[in-house]
Amino acid sequence: LMRPLQGCRGRSVVVGTVTLCLAAGWALQTPGGVSLVVPQPNINATVAQNILLSVEYSCRGVATIEWKHVSSWGTTSIVEWRSGNYVNISTVYKDRVTTFENGSIQLRNVGMRDAGYYFVTVMEEHGTNAYGTIIVNVYEIIYEDLHFVAVLFAFLAAVSAVLICFMWLCNKSLHLFQKKTTHKLTASTTEEIELETIEC
């Protein structure tokens, strides 16, 4: 009973080894294999800025690169192209996208709607795919806040100037009032002295 089991096990090992060798040989003979690197997976940008969605792929065969944008507004196809051949840019991005041989794209004049996830797929002609993701955050330049601060600063400067002028006028008036009071006191004292002299 033990011998047939060992024989079956031996045959299984041989069949497994042959299958593995054939698979390895097929893999080595089949051209293909694609790799993708995303050096900057997170990008912060301000409105109206140009951004570079940078990737680097390597591939033995001819690759097709596809970029998609996913946000709360939905999924939009940006561009698809085959290395060395056609470039198919979506009408939404027609005047805003530049493609590069390494698979990167540049997006010009970004707006708030451009925030979200950017998915890149590199498809090799023999069926091997590689995927990458870049998160883009877009921030507004808040001119209204800067305007408010500038107006507030100007208002405070004007109020300070008015207060300084008011204090100067008050000080001048007080000084004139003191002069007049001192003059009256001197005049009345002189009259009293003259009256006393006459009486004497």
Automatic annotation (TrEMBL):
Domain of life: Eukaryota
SUPFAM superfamilies tied to this protein: Immunoglobulin (SSF48726)
Single GO cellular component term: axon
Protein location: Membrane
Signal as UniProt keyword: yes
Keyword Iron-sulfur belongs to the record: no
Regions crossing the membrane: 12-29, 146-170
Broad class of where this protein is predominantly found: membrane
Signal peptide extent: 1-23
Domain Immunoglobulin intervals: 40-139
Keywords: Glycoprotein, Membrane, Signal, Transmembrane, Transmembrane helix
GO BP annotations, alphabetical order: filopodium assembly; positive regulation of excitatory synapse assembly
PANTHER family documented for this protein: SIGNALING LYMPHOCYTIC ACTIVATION MOLECULE, V-SET AND TRANSMEMBRANE DOMAIN-CONTAINING PROTEIN 5
Record's protein name: VSTM5 protein
Organism: Certhia brachydactyla
Classification of source organism: Eukaryota, Metazoa, Chordata, Craniata, Vertebrata
